[in-house]
Amino acid sequence: MQGSEPTTGSGAPSGLEALLVAQLSEAAIFADRDGVIRLWNDSAVAIFGFSREEALGRSLDLIIPERLRPAHWQGYHRAIARGATQHGRRSAITRALTGTGETIYVDMSFAVICDSHGGALGSLAIAREATERYRQDKALRERLATLEQAAADRAGS
């Protein structure tokens, strides 16, 4: 579907902006103030496994693991009220659900999108799949902890 424009709700990008969003290698997801998905690009389909038809008009709960939802919604509503996220431009690795029910890790960055008067319209998330990187980092941390413990044991004997 390369080159196709994303299906969007009101206030979504058009023209060149829509083409850029549609062709990103990262997932682009825009949710309105209530957390309802209004934009879901091709990469979101590929990463999360939900078609546009399955995602558009649905709550972000579609991709948020159940046990993470209370914290997510608390942060989401706070960001919408403030007009900015607490994370600034930093990305974070978090868990997400796929269409098959699998939990994956995604590297996400968020921005609250505001109108010309500063009123929050919703939130844009840019995500890339990070499951393998997360697993490799975890294995390295575990190996380092094992080596540190072995060194401490040697020093203590």
Structure description:
The chain has a single domain, classed as Beta-Lactamase, CATH 3.30.450. The protein is elongated. Strands 2-1-5-4-3 form a 5-stranded antiparallel sheet, sandwiched between helices. It has helices at 16-23, 42-48, 52-55, 69-82, 131-156; strands at residues 27-32, 37-40, 92-97, 103-114, 120-129. The longest helix has 26 residues, at 131-156. Helix content is 38%, strand content 24%. The protein has 157 residues and is of the alpha+beta class. A hairpin with a 5-residue loop joins β4 (103-114) and β5 (120-129). The protein contains 5 helices and 5 strands, in the order αββαααβββα. Mean pLDDT is 88; it is low at 1-8. Residues 90-142 form the PAC domain. Residues 20-83 form the PAS domain. This is PAS domain-containing protein. InterPro entries: PAS, PAS-assoc_C, PAS-like_dom_sf, PAS_4. It comes from Oryzomicrobium terrae.
Distance between the termini: 63 Å
Number of strands: 5
Q: How many distinct helices?
A: 5
Order the strands across the largest sheet as they lie in space. Answer: 2-1-5-4-3
CATH class: Alpha Beta
What is the residue-mean pLDDT, rounded to a whole number?
88
Following the backbone from N to C, one meets helices and strands in this order, namely: HEEHHHEEEH
Largest sheet: 5 strands, antiparallel
Computed structural class: alpha+beta
Strand content: 15-25%
- Tell me the radius of gyration: 19 Å
Helix content: 25-40%
Low-confidence stretches: 1-8
